[in-house]
Amino acid sequence: MVYNTREEAEKELYEKKIDLSQTTCPNREQRANGINIFYGKASELVDQAKSGCLKNHERGFAQSSGCTLNFYLSVRVGTIRDSATIFHAPVGCSSSALGYRELFRGVPVEMGRPANYDLHWMTTNLRDKDVVYGAGDKLKKTIYEAQRRYNPKAIFILTSCTTGIIGEDIEGAVADVQPHIDATIVPIHCEGVRSRLVQTGYDAFWHAILKYLVKKPEKKQEDLVNVASMLSYTWQDRLEIQRLLNKVGLRANLIPEFASVEQFQQLSEAAVTAPLCPTYTDYISHGLEQEYGVPYFMYPSPMGVANTDEWLRQIGKHTGKVDEIEALIEDEHKTWVPKLLAIRSEFDRIAAEKGSKVRVLGSLGQGRLLAQLPYFDELGLTSPAAMSQDYDNLILEDLEEVISKVGDFDLLVNTFQAAEQSHITQQLDPDLTLSCPFQGGAYKRGKGSTRIHALRGDPHPWSAQSGYTGAIAFGNFLLQSLKSTSFQKTLKAKTKDSYREWWFKQSNPLYYMKPESI
Amino acid sequence: MSSAEAEQNADYSEWRALEAPRFSCALGGALGTALGIYGSVPILHSGAGCGIGQLFGQLYAGGQNAGGPQGGTSTPCSSLVEHHVVFGGEEKLKDLISASTELMEGDLYAVITGCVPSLIGDDVSAVVRPFKEEKDIIYVKTSGFTGNSYEGYELFFEAVINDLLKPAEKIKPKTVNIFGIVPYQHVFWKGDAKVIKDLLARIGVTANVFLAEFDGTDQLRNIPSAEYNIVLSTWNGHRVASLLKEKFNTPYLTFPSVPIGPKQTAEFLRSVGKALNVSESVVEKVIESEERRVYRFIEYGGDAHMLVRPHPFFAVVADSGIAIGITRFLVNELGYLPDVVQISDEPPEEVRAEIIKHLTEGLETPVKPDVIFETDSYLVRQNLKNRPFMFLYASSLEAPTALQEYGALPITVSFPTMNRLILNRTYAGFDGALTLFEETISTFVGPL
Hints:
The complex is a heterodimer.
Chain A: H1 6-13, H2 28-32, E1 38-41, H3 42-51, E2 57-59, H4 72-76, E3 83-87, E4 120-123, H5 128-133, H6 136-150, E5 154-158, H7 161-165, H8 170-177, E6 184-188, H9 199-213, E7 224-228, H10 235-247, E8 251-255, H11 261-265, E9 272-275, H12 278-292, H13 305-319, H14 322-354, E10 359-362, H15 366-379, E11 382-388, H16 396-406, E12 410-413, H17 418-428, E13 432-435, E14 448-451, H18 467-481, H19 486-494, H20 502-505, E15 513-517
Helix pairs in contact in A: 3-16, 6-8, 9-12, 10-18, 13-14, 14-18, 15-16
Chain B: H1 3-10, E1 18-19, H2 26-36, E2 40-45, H3 49-60, H4 82-87, H5 90-103, E3 108-113, H6 115-120, H7 124-128, E4 137-140, H8 149-163, E5 172-179, H9 189-202, E6 206-208, H10 216-221, E7 226-232, H11 238-248, E8 252-255, H12 261-275, H13 280-300, H14 302-308, E9 313-318, H15 320-334, E10 337-343, H16 349-360, E11 370-373, H17 377-383, E12 391-394, H18 402-406, E13 409-412, H19 429-442
């Protein structure tokens, strides 16, 4: 089947309509035919998705990879300022959030971090007794306690496998308590067992934000641009986005990391919702358009010079700043394009020396996949393969576009399956692999290894990746990484691998995929 | 009584809701223990997020440690979802164990269960049983709601005892097992284990410390042949030692903490020496030479200590072991004055009086610290307000704002510890005194 327009494709391939009368969103599996296991050409995946025969499968061997709560929501919701988060869960579901008080403290106040702020989360600390007798009263008491202690503007409730399975009535408890407290209660249904796809957690979060927190617009703020950022976007990335938008008289409403509750309330007043990661932002973008008429676009993300140009142009269109944006782009290019070309010529020189382009294996989420490959192309790098945490039809059109731009490539879809990622890294043997801790020992190798991205609390310009400054910083960072191999080489030689030798001798990273679909 | 204390007393219960408590769940503790014993491969029968959650909340939080070859996202996991809640997860677990043993080399496989199988009633024992024919495999029955990380430590060793150990043919004299050091919760666990092993070797005693040793699983198998069990905690490892007494009749000795500095270490060596019939002269010779060297080194820090920050008040927020060890060292060897000690590991009621005794008696100062049992981070912060302490030995939850909020210099010594990488760092033993003294003085020292 061929779709003539984007709208037509969207209508057929995934459920666009958001139903805020429901307590939560549908799972990504249902909403957009999401999967988290595939290995093959990206074009094959596109064909299968379009014909509707793309199916998910069980793994006979799987590794701990993340649920709808952990780790994305668990480490992010608690960064929202003037709020409190309650994990309605046994004590271990929230331990990943123990860094909450330190996360942004490394950012100097001079760089825009508020000097005084406090973040709060509590756990209802469910125990055997609660599982047997129910924990509704405990949840209510905890909400009152959070109100009394912190006097927050919002109280987020994160649910767990346990509350899901024992059938806790979260909405009932919220309805009982809400009239008696000042904070707006925002229950988020992120029971770990509800979905195989961690991105369902994002949708669940945005659903709750739309349902409980976003206010009806009092006035339109024509200069306000909603930008939903990932934890992989550093403080410098935030500054770069703000810098670019400020230059044309626009303001970035950066959510949810370290945002204030008010920033969520006014999402409906913005001129446009812009993506950093399209599938992460998808639900809130659609919701804001559907409920309040806030337009959005999904592609591209501001990674690389060409992508940043286009990202700004899209924003220009929706804010009536087309001319200003063109002037901005021209101005910025004067500074940054020569620097980009210098980086490119260095990669070209390396390529000439070795007789082929520098091969990079990278990408993490779907969004990074879409944004990074064209950027690598810009740098003169080639990506024979990419990895993506999951795939769903939300990115189908965009993936096709990327293939048409950079050519076909191998795609491994898995959510942090370290054995599969080690396997493909060893098999493809790229010049540089962009790793993260969730690939286990895949960084141990004879050639280049570096990190795929830094994290939100990192204030150093060296770690930036977004916009023009980020494109240059990251390009230099990649060049620098090619000069360093001793760490990964030494550890490869001197420490044991996680897997037996046979694993790397056979050719299939999805060796343990069950044939029957689910 | 401060309002925070009143609140605590009015609402004391291990069931209460808490802000950022200083431990994870029983699954986290069992997983951390399995990862601490090299050669064992944990297999999680749980939701997909449990392992990655513990990577952040147990391993990174326990001294910013990566998962290693079997931890983090390398840990096999049955990744249960709704389908399994309805139809059961036993088949999935069977497949996973079989694939894990095929793919990952191990001397011991540890099936560790989370909340989901407990709630849906999977018969995990029945799934595990057939694998015992070919592999050493144990079933650690944890769930998130069973208890905290410390409970997970006990459950792991109970599973080892019940599923793996057989009575010894012969008791090996002068061999001991060391319990009570809970990996990651006791953030210096690797260094602690090594120091204890090396110290005991100096007096001719062989110690199975299990942790961070490449023959860790062999040491587990040798548990029944030890002459003594030694427990370095007022409560962690006590259930293990008492079960071993019951099953193998092994006697046990306990100490309130891992010994820190010459005084505690000398006492430790004397007690162990006496119990194991080590010649007194051997023990005393070790103590004398080590003491002499360590105190000579301490002298180098004397000027900075005496001139800049002599006899300061200090506060502690830590698990009972590190709290007792550090407090007694600072008071009895550096002359620091104890202001308040908050115990953050939720020890059982019955040992609290003993913990208070170790923190308030036998101190070489008339000052007695307030001892508060608290793990709720909000209440911990309330309890630190308006006090005279200048040094705060606590976790990375207090560190970022210690100077601003309390005017105190923070030193991170307890869980969670995210602001320092802890590899072989330890305060244990004779040399531990030097490390802790160095770290303390280094927080303020500059040109005199």
